[in-house]
Amino acid sequence: MADQQPDKTTAPAADVADLQPAVTSPDTPKETTETTEPQPEDKTETTTAQPAIETTATQPAAPDTPAEADKAPAEVQQPPQAEEEKPVAEQPEQPAYLAKNPALAQFFERLPAIDSNDAPTVNVLIKFLRANEGNVKLAEEQLTKALKWRKEMNPSALAESTSYSATKFGGLGYLTVYKEANGAETVVTWNIYGGVKDINTTFGDMDEFVKWRVALMELAVKELKMVEATSVIDYDGEDPYQMIQVHDYLNVSFLRLNPAIKAATKKTIEVFTTAYPELLREKFFVNVPAIMGWMFAAMKVFLSKNTTRKFHPISNGANLAREFPSLKEQFPKVYGGSAPALQEGARTVNLTQEEAAPAAPEQSKEQAKENKEEAAQEESKAESAPEQPKTDPAVTAKEAPAADAK
C-alpha cells in the first residue's frame, strides 16, 4: 500500500507554532495602557530654550586603500548571465526488429535488465511471445515461471552429469541429427514408448520420469545451437531453431491406460509447455490406433493452437520417412529409411546398468563331497529303519473314544 501523501494545505509544525497566540507567564505583570483625556489648550505661550543641536547626515566614506577599492565593485550586483544550453545526448537507434514489432519492444521495456541487442536472447524472447500469441503480459509470466523452474531443476546438470537406470529407461529415448544437402541440420528426438518393459518400473516414480525426459530434451536443445545465433529470427517467418519429435507407440495398449502413465504424461506436457516454448517444428505419433484421438483432445487443453497444428498421427511407422524426402535415407529402416536401428547409431542420456544380485558362492570340492556323503548316510539310515505297521484310519477313529474313556 502506498504511503499516504501529506495534505498540501497542512503547514509544517514550525509554521503552525508561529501561528499560535503568544502565551504570557503568570509572574510577569501585564502592561496596561492608560488613556489620558485631552486637556484644555493653554493659550499662554511658553517658550523654552532648547540647546541647538547640529544634525549632520552621515555619508559613506570613500575607500582610502586599494584593498577597499577592490572590494567596492564586488558589492555591486551583476546582472544574471544566460545559462549555456547543454547538448542533448543522442539516443541509440532502436533495432529494426523492435521497431517492426511493438509487442517485442514492449516486452524488452518490461525487462530492462535484458540486452535487446543480443541475438540469442532476442530469439528466446520471440519464442515466448509467439507461444502466447503476442500477449506481452502472458509471455512475461511464462518467462518468469520458466526461469524459476530452471533454477530449481537445473536441467543442464540432468543432461550432463546425471545417470539414469537402464532398467527403467534403456531403449526408450534417442537423439539423432540429420544433415541436409545445403548443410542445414534437422534435430529429431525419439520416444519409444512401445519399448517399456514394465509400466510401474518406468512410470512409477513420476519425478524421475520427468527428469529423464528433460535430460533428453536438453541434449536436443543444445544441438539446435541457439547460443551461436548471429541474427534475429523473423517473428512471422521461419524459425530454424526447432526440432522434430517422434513418439512410437508400437505394442502400446490404449484401451487400459495406466494411471501412472497418465500422470507422467500430463506432468511432462506441463513442464515442456512452460520451459520449452516454440522449440517444436512437428511431432509425429507413429504406430498408433485410431482410438488415440482422445490424447490429442487432451493435449489441446494444455497447448496453444500453434502447437497442436503441428501434430501428425501415423498408423504405420514405416511411412514416417516419406514425410522427409531429403532425409529419407538417413532414417532407420524400421521407419522407412536405410539407416541402422536407433540402438546402433543414435545418442541417448547417461544410463547406468544395475548390478545383478550376487550369486551364492560356489562350494569347494571338499565341501561338496562331504555334503554328498552326509546325504548318502541319511538315505541309508532311512532304508534300514524297521517298517512301521500300517494303521487303518477308520479303525483308529472308532477306537479313539474308547481310549479316551480309559
UniProtKB/TrEMBL annotation:
Cofactor list: heme b
Pfam families: CRAL_TRIO (PF00650)
Basic and acidic residues bias spans: 363-384
Domain of life, source organism: Eukaryota
Signal peptide: none
GO CC annotation, single: plasma membrane
Record protein name field: Phosphatidylinositol transfer protein SFH5
CDD domains, per database record: SEC14 (cd00170)
Record localization: Cytoplasm; Endoplasmic reticulum membrane; Microsome membrane
Family: Belongs to the SFH5 family.
Origin species: Aspergillus novofumigatus (strain IBT 16806)
Domain CRAL-TRIO per the UniProt entry, residue ranges: 207-343
Residue ranges with Low complexity bias: 54-66, 353-362
Reactions mediated catalytically: a 1,2-diacyl-sn-glycero-3-phospho-(1D-myo-inositol)(in) = a 1,2-diacyl-sn-glycero-3-phospho-(1D-myo-inositol)(out)
Region (Disordered): 1-92, 352-406
Main location: cytoplasm
Record keywords: Cytoplasm, Endoplasmic reticulum, Heme, Iron, Lipid transport, Membrane, Metal-binding, Microsome, Transport
Protein function: Non-classical phosphatidylinositol (PtdIns) transfer protein (PITP), which exhibits PtdIns-binding/transfer activity in the absence of detectable PtdCho-binding/transfer activity. Regulates PtdIns(4,5)P2 homeostasis at the plasma membrane. Heme-binding protein that may play a role in organic oxidant-induced stress responses.
UniProt GO BP: Golgi to plasma membrane protein transport; regulation of exocytosis
Cited InterPro entries: CRAL-TRIO_dom, CRAL-TRIO_dom_sf, CRAL/TRIO_N_dom_sf, Sfh5
Membrane topology summary: Peripheral membrane protein
GO molecular function terms attached to this record: metal ion binding; phosphatidylinositol transfer activity
